[in-house]
Amino acid sequence: MDELLRDFLTESGESLTVVDGEMVKLEADPNNREVLQKIFRLVHTIKGTCGFIGLPRLEKVAHAAENVLGKFRDGVIRVTPDSVTLIFESLDRIKEILAGIEQAESEPLGDDADLIERLGVLAALDGRESSKIGADGEADPFGPEVTTLAAEPLIAVISADAVRVAAGEPVVAEALALPAVKTGEAPLANQSIRVNVDVIEQLIVMVSELVLTRNQLLEMVRHSNDSEFKVPLQRLSNVTAELQESVMKTRMQPIGNAWAKLPRIVRDLGAELGKKIELQMHGAETELDRQVLELIKDPLTHMVRNSADHGLETPAERKASGKGEQGTITLRAFHEGGHIIVEIADDGRGLPLDKIKAKALTNGLVSEGELGRMSEAQVQRFIFHAGLSTAQKVTNVSGRGVGMDVVRSNIELIGGSIDLKSRQGHGTTFTIKIPLTMAIISALIVGVSDMRFAIPQICVRELVRASEGSDTKIERINRTSVLRLRDRLLPLVRLSEVLNVSTGRDGDPAEAYIVVAQAAGQTFGIVVDTVYDTGEIVVKPVCSILKDIPVFSGNTILGDGSVIMILDPNGVAAAVAGEVGTRNAAEDALGGMVADSEPKQSLLLFRAGSPEPKAVLLGAVTRLEMVDAQKIERSDGRHVLQYRGNLMPVITSLAGSLSREGAQPILVFSEGDHTVGVAVDEILDIVEATLKFELSAAGSGVIGTSVVKGRATEVIDIAFHVSDVFQSWFSKRSSGRGRPSILLVDDSPFFRTMVAPQLMAAGYDVTEAGNAELALRLMGEGKSFDIILSDICMPGMDGRQFAAAVKRDPGWRETPVVGLAADTDENDPGVFDALTRKFDREGLIQTINGFIHTQERAA
Amino acid sequence: MNKVASVGHEYVTVMIGSQMFGIAIGLVNEIFKPELLKPVPLSHPDIAGVLNLRGRIVTMIDCRRRLGIAAGEGVQDHMAVGVERDGDHYGLLFDGAGEVLRFSQDQIEPPPVNLDPHWKRVSKGVFRMESGLLVLLDVSILLDFGRKAAA
Questions:
Q1: What is the predicted pLDDT for the residue at A829?
Q2: Which of A132, A209, A597, A802 has its CA 20 to 30 A from that of A793?
Q3: Which residue stretches of A688-771 are H helix?
Q4: Would you give the end-to-end CA distance of chain B in angstroms?
């Protein structure tokens, strides 16, 4: 292709992108002469160049558009959405013709007469319209749709400051301080040159090599004392570092380049969907690597489309929910510790949790029980899974099969990560974290056996050293390793197992390092033998015959000259998922737990006394311990164990006998300051199951028998077994009639999930309701409850209103209603029969027991 | 693969086990002594590992394994032939240092029909030398890990 033509195509392409963006601005602010001037100049340049290199068709369209823009500029015709749309149409036509030229190297055939005629009609609309401008030009500059241009026929080259001067604002000093040259851009043009991308790529490769060589030299010199090379090498090192930085800079481009097309897209979408959308962009000047930029362009566009299509509501819906008619999509980019953070936020309806859940279930991504235990955030993250578009209907805009899973994999491909926060009714924010550059990353070098591997720092959360005998140690459930980390169970994966490398021993090492990593929406620990150091590494792609090993994303050369593989945390995460499934996916700290109507319970299965499995509700268990059997002492006829500085009673009624030596598994239950251990023979597994009890006779120490994992399993009444130790803890349960039932009303699913198992363990049937309305409905359905627990502070009908409603109902008047106060200032029971503190479980259970006893005596 | 006919007449000879092989000289970048060879977990068993050759990462192929030659057969003077394929660098491990031989196309015979199918796939022909037979290696087939049959 002719070089002149190629340059023209590149330049026009860039100009048109700018014009698109500026036109959107102009539509929003028709009085902005600076913007108008810029648009006019760019279109004028395109037209001029067309004439010069002989592209008549293009020239005609550009000329007609320029005419209209000229009339805008001169204030002869007004900027209206219709006229802007027409200009956009012309711009699209110009792009179309340019694309044709790029393919065929000559103008494609086509007829633009219709478009040119319409542009002509618009341009001819002078006089009549313009006469009005003089009269009310300043009167209503922010009028709803039709906004007029400034009345004064201002000179062509004009700055924002000058406009303010004209408007009579006292900006004289500022105006004086400004240098005379405000036209600005011409001298700038001479300071930059166009360089072929290949040249820059080549430079990067060379610099990478140089960095490697430098590292190797440094490593060599480090091992020799008093080397004469030391000083010159230091200089070489500095120069290399600077060179690396400078060359990297040549690849840097403002992220605004990737955003340039978005205003236009959003405008068109708004028109198409009948929504009012404002697009705000912050941090467009944030720079990042060209290659990275190219790769995030499409995901970004896709996400903005998603926000506009699914995220934001229609003006009517927004109004109905008390928001302004205009929805806002905010793009924000900034640097944070060697990474770029890009946020895409909308103030729309938020992610529909129920729909995501339903979809995840139908698509078999998760079982109902697993779903029940998932936090909102975890459920929301399902949208990153394949085949989970929440769009109700496939619109022209999105829902075309390209889902967030593609977005996620594209972002992870460049070593980035994506997460989201969403609040129903308030909007959704996606956060993308991407490395500044793909060529050089910082990494943690770890060792397994005698091999070393690099783990990209971006996904390393923290480093934990686990050793036998300390609080931080690796524990096993069945054959799965877990680490208890700040009250969360972290699934562990052994790097040696993932990589199938022999470590020359079985089982857990006495000491190990755990790299807590986050990838593919999971947090997990990677167990390694050693951690060497962290450092900048140059990522090199692996050769094609090693490409299909999913746990490696590349390789690199270390300072000592050896080649090591870079682990792909996503690949490792897949290995974790394969090993332990999603049930161990680490919870967010205090992540809201969601319970279904028929809750599945987590059960701890163990063996004690007999070969049949037994179970306790996992929620009731505080810890699992393996203790040296010889450490269990006898005192006052009881077994006790020195545990964390205290004497802990050990109950042996389940196991029957204790082992004399070796390891004794103990389930630890605690409540407030009290701790009690229950000795069992063997801890088997943790499972999810819906408890359908065959109730046992009270006092047998068994709540009932339920089928768990296909086997009849006794669910142990822990309260019964520990009751002789702590009378006050779990009071004697009622006997003689069925289990008393409790209606638990609380808007916090977390609280419900926390309390319900406790109440069940204390011998009550619990029915949960997420709000007062639901509770009243359940009560109206003929269900019977012995006692009602209600949160006081709830959205909608609050606890006191609810209690009052219960007391008004003749059928329920006698049922005690206990208020759960989160706030210690809340002391007046009012309509409640009693108040209790929300997080004082002992007090709560005592209160309930009190009422139940009274009822029993009355009955 | 650049199978340039004009240079196809010159071959670098290498010993793998007790058998002599020839590799078209146009394909050979260099002959080097492998150092700091690091195994790659989970990789194909015929891949000996990766190493750094002057700032370039080279994937090393264990030719003995690939050709099914038992370890211990023949000399063990580890050397490697550096070749390039699709922009990636590979090193073919062999046992004895070689020399460059020159012969014309008509001296090359097709591999005998009764040759081990393994070998037949990777050999482009056989050259009769006074001291013995030389098998011409088809490097692109040797490096083709996509088709499992080659292994």
A1: 78
A2: A597
A3: 718-722, 749-761
A4: 20
Q: Which two tokens stand for residue B129?
A: 């030398």
Which chain A residues touch B89 with a CB distance below 8 Å? 543
Global pTM exceeds 0.80: no
In chain A, the largest separation of any two C-alpha atoms, in whole Å, equals 108
Question: Nearest residue of B to residue A538 by CA position?
Answer: B55
Tell me which residue in A209, A501, A543 faces B41 most closely, judged by beta carbons: A501
A739-760 burial, b for 16+ CB within 10 Å, e for fewer? bbbbbbbbbbbbbbbebbbbbb
> What average pLDDT does this structure show over A711-730?
65
> What average pLDDT score do residues A113-119 get?
85
Least confident segment among A21-35, A372-386, A620-634, A721-735: A721-735
Q: Which of A552, A555, A562 is facing B36, going by the closest CB pair?
A: A562
From chain B, the residues in CB contact with A207 under 8 A are none
Q: Which residues are within 8 A (CB) of A80 and not within 5 positions of it... i.e. 6 or more apart?
A: A145, A146
Distance between A623 CA and the closest CA of chain B, angstroms: 37
Question: Residue B74 belongs to a domain with what CATH number?
Answer: 2.40.50.180
Q: What is the pLDDT of residue A393?
A: 45
Please state the ipTM of this predicted complex: 0.83
- Please give the residue range of the domain that contains residue B72: 5-150
* Rounded (10°) angle between helices A799-808 and A772-780: 20
Shortest Cα distance, chain A CAs vs residue B84, angstroms: 11
Domains of chain A with bracketed CATH? 3-158 (1.20.120.160), 197-251 (1.10.287), 256-435 (3.30.565.10), 440-584 (2.40.50.180), 601-722 (2.40.50.180), 741-858 (3.40.50.2300)
Q: How many domains does chain B have?
A: 1
